Amino acid sequence: MNDLYLRSGIFLAPFHNHDENPTLSLERDLELLEHLDRLNYHEAWIGEHHSGGFEVIASPEMFIAAAAQRTRHIRLGTGVVSLPYHNPFMLADRMVQLDHMTRGRAMFGVGPGALVHDALKIGIDPGDQREMMNEAFEVIVDLLQGKTVNKKTAWFNITDAQLQLRPYTQPHMELAVAAARSPSGSLLSGKFGVGMLSIGGTSPAAMERHTENWGLYEKTARANGHTPHRKDWRVVGMFHIADTREQARKNVEFGVKAFANYFRDVATFPIIPPEVTDPINWLVETGTACIGTPDDAIAYIDRLVKGSGGFGVICELAHNWADWDATKRHYELMARFVHPHFQNSRDLLRGSYDYATGHHVDFIGRASAAVQKEIDRHAAAQDGAPKQQAAE
Questions:
Q1: Which end of the chain is more exposed for a tag (fewer CB within 10 A), N or C?
Q2: Superfamily of domain 7-348
Q3: pLDDT exceeds cutoff 60 at 39
Q4: Collapsing DSSP states into helix, strand and coil, what is residue 200?
């Protein structure tokens, strides 16, 4: 069983159906982060995508800068920046600026790039993306550590490069690498001893793969002189909860079909197989998603924690299966009733209540005796007071 304090977060790609107003979709994403900030969510990771018509944030850094002005506590990460699309010196410089602008609330998540058509549009062979990610990340880590870097590859030439600003966060902002199907993410994050973002679902098969990747991370980290910590492992899952299971299922009818179609028709891997005619039942029955009540969410997360051996953050994929009001209600229910179960924030309250109820009769008796004692004392004082003589 995981004895870590399980932090809460979201993974905001985002997913917006192309039949909506994109300006309002982006505004709603910012409003969502404000909502989560009030609900004490610990972090949000914002993605980078450039095509496909569904995941509409092109610059997570720009989005984070705006969100930081509208929130107070929640930490904001790039989830993730696709390293092959950026010169590593320029990217590191932008992220250090963001570190200062957010006063240390920014996190730097990286990956190779998920959408093949994004890479092809700028002339990148998808087969080269993971090697390019590794080359860029090595430069970025050195730059964040204040080193002067010289490195030439087939796609960049870094010459006598040193950042002009030290990071606001010391020694530098938190770093994380996305890990999904291939071992590349776990190998890279383990090599540098940074966090790992497990994406790609939380079905039993997916969790088995994530757990294998974490084992590879631990082995690689130790081989490179780092001590692995499960608190640095983030797992991204799919949830929608409501007051009843029936209501939760009804809510997700709003957007689950469009979500399924996007992953079948555009994205790299279909989440819901094309032959599935009832995606809601399939998501629940296969354990791919939790669609139910707060108690169902607790049981689902408990399965993930026990099966994996424990991790540090449960990140909910912000999928927009439900409409806006039901989506906000989902996050409220998670914050009020699910997160406390894994953060031990209610145990002392419950203990105090149980102690009070267990001693209720004794406490009431003592309170009654104290009141009666004061009544008797007052009566005795009145009896002993001199009588006022009647007026002549």
A1: C
A2: Luciferase-like domain (3.20.20.30)
A3: yes
A4: coil
DSSP letter for each residue of 261-310: HHHHHTSSS-SS-TT-S-HHHHHHHTTS-EEE-HHHHHHHHHHHHHHHT-
Scanning the structure block, which residue is given the tokens 């001693």? 359
% of the chain residues with pLDDT over 90: 89
Which among 230, 239, 237 is positioned nearest to 198, based on CA atoms? 237
- The tokens of 287 are what? 């354990």
DSSP 46-91: E----SSSS---S-HHHHHHHHHHH-SS-EEEEEEEEGGGS-HHHH
CB 143 within 8 A of CB 135: no
> Could you write out the DSSP letters of every residue in 238-249?
-EEE-SSHHHHH
Token pair, residue 264, equals 């079948």
Supply the pTM of this predicted model.
Answer: 0.93
Structure tokens at 39: 């609900």
User: For 217-234, how does the pLDDT look when each residue is reduced to its tens digit (9 = 90+)?
Assistant: 999 999 999 999 999 999
